[in-house]
Amino acid sequence: MTIIESERIRVWDPVVRLFHWTLVLAFFVAYFTEDELMTPHVWAGYLVTALLTIRIAWGFVGTRHARFSDFVYSPAVITDYVKKMFSRNEPRYLGHNPAGGAMVVLIILSLLNTVISGIALYGNTDLAGPMAGIFQGEQSADILEEVHEFFANFTLILAGLHVAGVVWSSRMHGENLVKAMLTGFKKEPQS
């Protein structure tokens, strides 16, 4: 069924959509370049840092569905939603559902830990970047490297879970959420 213009509603603003797809690209460039190609790795990491800064600010001042107040729910609401998912009767949300909102927060927190530890590691090992020389010594480098790698890998796992959730939600509610994140439009809720 094709959705006609009057049945569509703008949900995702251009800032959210540009952030989302640029973050995907920057994260994967950083993830797959790591030790072999430090220059693109570092610049992709800086881009992720800038994107996170913009997205966090936009979470407070952005459009309705971009604001944290629209999609950050209590643990009880998230748990109830996930239970309903497993029984295949979860409600449809126009913006992020409670599980999706929790995922956004987890990904942001994981990426923040990834970039902060990465900038600190870069400052330690290469004496470069905004944290150059703050953390010194081989022991600090080893700890920072472990933290950085853990959160990069954890972010990758979260991204996989995010994609699985998008596929699940798309099928359960009969809408293409990837297309919605490209166009900004979703189906209008039925009355």
Descriptors:
mainly alpha, 191 residues, two-stranded antiparallel ribbon, single chain, 2 strands, 69% helix, elongated
Describe, in short, the structure shown.
The protein is mostly helical.
Topology:
Layout lengths: L7 E3 L3 H20 L4 H24 L6 H4 L3 H12 L11 H28 L12 H36 L3 H7 L1 E3 L4
Antiparallel strand pairs: 1-2
Helix pairs in contact: 1-2, 2-5, 5-6
Instruction: Characterize the overall form.
Output: elongated
DSSP strand (E) fraction? under 5%
Strand order of the largest sheet: 1-2
Q: What is the number of beta strands?
A: 2
Tell me which oligomeric state these chains represent: single chain
Largest sheet: 2 strands, antiparallel
**SS field, number of helical segments:** 7
What would the average pLDDT be, to the nearest integer?
A: 92
Structural class: mainly alpha
**Helix share, percent:** 55-70%
Order of helices and strands: EHHHHHHHE
Uncertain runs with pLDDT below 50, 5 residues or more? none
- Note the gap between the termini: 18 Å
The rounded Rg comes to 19 Å
Overall description:
By secondary structure, this protein is mainly α. It is built from seven helices and two strands; from the N terminus they run E-H-H-H-H-H-H-H-E. Helix 1 (14-33) runs antiparallel to helix 2 (38-61), helix 2 packs across helix 5 and helix 5 runs antiparallel to helix 6 (138-173). The longest helix has 36 residues, at 138-173. It is elongated and about 60 Å long. The model has no long low-confidence stretch (mean pLDDT 92).
